[in-house]
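Input record (Table S2, row 446):
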Amino acid sequence: MTTSAFPSANEQHVTERVRRAFASLERARQHTLAIIGPLTDDDVSRQHDTLMSPILWDLGHIAAFEKLWLLQNLDGPIEFSEMPGTYNPFEHPRSTRGSLPLPTLAGQREELARVRQAVIERLSAEAFDANDPLLRDAYVVRMVAQHERQHQETILQTLQLKLGEPYAAPRAIPLPSGTSPAVEGAMVRFPGGPVRVGTDDRSEAYDNERSSHDVQLAPFDIDITPVTNGAYRAFVDNGGYDVREYWSDAGWAWRTESGVRAPKHWTRDNNGEWTTRSMDRVERIDPLRPVCHVCYHEAEAYARSVGKRLPTEQEWEAAATWNPEDGVQQRYPWGNDEPSSALANVDQLSFGTAQVHAYPHNVSPIGCYGMIGDVWEWTSSDFHGYPGFEAFPYPEYSEVFFGSEYKVLRGGSWATSADVARATFRNWDYPIRRQIFAGFRCARDA
Ligand SMILES: [Fe+2]
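Output record (fe (ii) ion complex):
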């Protein structure tokens, strides 16, 4: 399949944004196939962890979602509940998906290809009515591509938790090394004032990123880099998991019940050295890489141990995109160029984090490194709709999750697609979750 099968370049109604949406859809599929390439039928049919679906389910759900939005929906409005039962996430919680009757890997690959072929045929004649917010600039195409990308990150989480032989990661993106020494805990000041966060974009942003609005921030300091393995190891080795004052009540309850004493996937060897595993690679922890696979409670406890706190999501976004000198909101920390694996550790095929100063352009106007890529960053904010929130195109994406149960994560990880990693993107999960490729950086009142 090539992009030439999509709306042709000389058709006048095909805008640049439409072309980019189709290119994104095509790239999404290439990555899905690259990621599942090394997997056997056994790998994809097993439920490797109760938190995760069997990969066969993700694949079937990707195809079902595409069919729903790019075929059925174009013939007349649909409801999300029309998603076929097996692949409807609300009918089958993840922990139960291992007992669903699912096709073989070959069967799922055929279904993905069959749906995509039908979509190409259907959409080559589509005029993308500019008066329809779902069709304008092919928003719905971009949405389906992003959905596939987000499930890829979910699949990568599953592969990190894989039982049996470790996943033979097809590392196709090499990681650069740090360009300057990490200074543990170094901070930079954000002067505060009115800043603009969120977006009004209708070509790729999700409903929960809208609308663009002003917030008034007090001055604060924020870490120049994410907290490193080296800094976090000191917290572990100095007994941070045993100091009650560092932990919130909920955090201490989790810490006590779980018995956790280090980030997930960290192991102490016989010489007392910490190693960590990333897919099929076990290495001594690199003190210059961001700590990964910690939950919100661990992030919060670490921050308290050094006299800091986690940033709110508004502070995080201001530190990532606001230029206080010019009073301008950029799209990304480095400016307005689209993310790529040259600018930041995104796009999934590096299969690990890079050292914190490895990307010299991935610096925000105030001087924060690595806000896009490497690890998601926990913020102290609960997941709520922005002022004037309107669910679009379906409330099951975000609105049904709004509330104080979830904490917001920002910035994307190495496992996030460059087509999804943007500064306004909001991820959310329970504060006890550690399967996410998540770390954090700290803040404090100025
Ligand atoms: Fe989904």
